[in-house]
What does this fold into?
Amino acid sequence: MSMDRRQFIKIAGMSALFGLGGKGAFEFLRPGALEASEHGHGVEYVPEEPAEVAKRWGMTIDVQKCGEPGVVEKCIKACHSTHNIPDFGDSKNQVKWLWQDDYEHTFAGNENSYMDDRVKELPFLCLCNHCDEPPCVRVCPTKATFRRPDGVVAMDYHRCIGCRFCMAGCPYGSRSFNWFDPRNALNQKEYNLDFPTRMKGVVEKCNFCVERLAQDKLPACVEAAPEALAFGDLADPDSSVRQILRKRSSMRRKLELGTKPSVFYLV
Amino acid sequence: MIEKALKGEPRYFMWLVFLMGIIGVGVGCWFYQLYKGLGITGMGRDISWGVYIAQFTYLVGVAASAVMIVIPLYLHDYKKYGKVVVFGEFLAIAAVTMCMLFIVVDVGQPQRMLNVLLHPTPNSILFYDMIVLCGYLIINIIVGYNCLLADARKLPHPGWVKPFIYLSIPWAVSIHTVTAFLYAGLPGRHLWLTAVMAPRFLASAFASGPALLVLVLLIISRVSKFDPGRDALQTIAKTICYAMIINLFLVGMEIFTAFYSNIPGHMHPLQYLFVGLHGHGKIVAWMWTAAPFAFIGVLLLLIPSARRHHGILAFACASIFLACWIDKGVALVIGGFIPNPFHRIIEYSATFPEIAITLAIWGIGALILTVLHKVAITVREEEAAT
Ligand code: SF4
Ligand code: SF4
It folds into this structure.
């Protein structure tokens, strides 16, 4: 999974050539297959407008700042209205990309009875960790979940067969299945026409706002609460996130499983 | 040859009509599920696989167990299995068909299932599972049909079938091993993350599949003139007994490792299954039903005088079949999801449509089995008559 910048540019260049020669025939065979096939067929993801290209996007979440009133709520609202997340109003069928939990449950298995009570009560934002070694990608039988060269674990909702193997594989509970038709449970007032809705029977999760990254914008949650959240290239020693991680001590969830999460909690 | 299934006594047709009734209800529920979404089942974001996948897992074992007849007959020339082997192969065909149907009803977008082959993903165990299951179905159809056809025409079995028979042996082991790998390779699901998953799957399969076969053969010997043979049944019974003992031994290994190491993550699912966890214990009653049946079944099969009595043999086989079904068809899948990744306990119970769909698929399996076995019985009866 490691690739330096030059290598990436080389592959991207090669695939551009590939694209020139082969796209027509390929499209004719299987419409849409090209866009969805970044991970396996030698055709690598190339952003339309070459926005900032990272080798591994990552996020830091300042848990203290999240404890201030309204911060967590505005992040969740920004995410869910940007991505047309349905609200079925019950916990069984719930779809969620970004939500909050407490320390004890977010870091289940690392409970510390003697911990500072203040930390215990702080809200921890939970989302897909965009793991460097993602089990969800490993188990998916159709490559509907795939890891992009920039580290984002993305999904193709049109290819997913809804087997939910990835939900069993993700050790963080980050993935949601559309148990019912999500289009019936949208908030009509905050409907975002620029982002697709999904259909019933497919899995979805946080996508690190790839659609915004392609336009050189920060993820919606980071834009909503820049005081608490930061986003940048973990592979670049001078990036914002790396500078923060140099100064603050951080935690990641379930490191013992070797998934190498890209989301860091600052305590 | 298949026309032999079209002639029968009234009770044969009544049984088929009864099965079709069950299937009809389930198919109706399946259309409802397709229309509304899988939310009509008891599954949810925390227990994302339920009774469908559990039945799938159990039935892969039933399918694989045909080798317990094939190995003695073809590798050790144990002639007494000569007449019954086709019943085992036909049972495998019915079981694999049920497995595939359980996958179809479980996925959210069944019309896209070919994506698994259109976008082959060698790192996904599900990809291999699909291949080995389809292969196993084809092998058993080839072998079962051609051997029976030769019997019906009173010809020796064609030589070209032999390689397929030998191939079916490792192939049967592979289907259940690959199915175990679906579970055993997932990080963070402690009940499943165990190296003995595949061995245990095979042991419980080699107990429960032949147990079902014995039950079916006992029924057949009552309703038809075909006699499977006393010795054949007794030998199958011994196989069941040893396989079940190995299975129980491996369960013991799991319990020891979890509790002696005292690692909470490993203990929690087992605690949930056997004694309940934090006041949640929907599966506990199931487990304590399975445990006595497992031990009673083994005990009865161990005692030769008990085993020889057909009534007791049937009871012992039914006990073991039930115990293994609870273990794999109920507990294993649900236990793996509890507690969830946030260490919360969210319980699961199947809904009415979910149960109706499940029963319908079992009904389809029973229908296939009945028809195939009807053909086999007729061939055997004609053989005996000449
Ligand atoms: S957090 Fe879960 S869904 Fe996200 S990349 Fe990791 S394993 Fe996949
Ligand atoms: S549910 Fe969809 S994304 Fe998840 S493993 Fe299955 S095909 Fe892949």
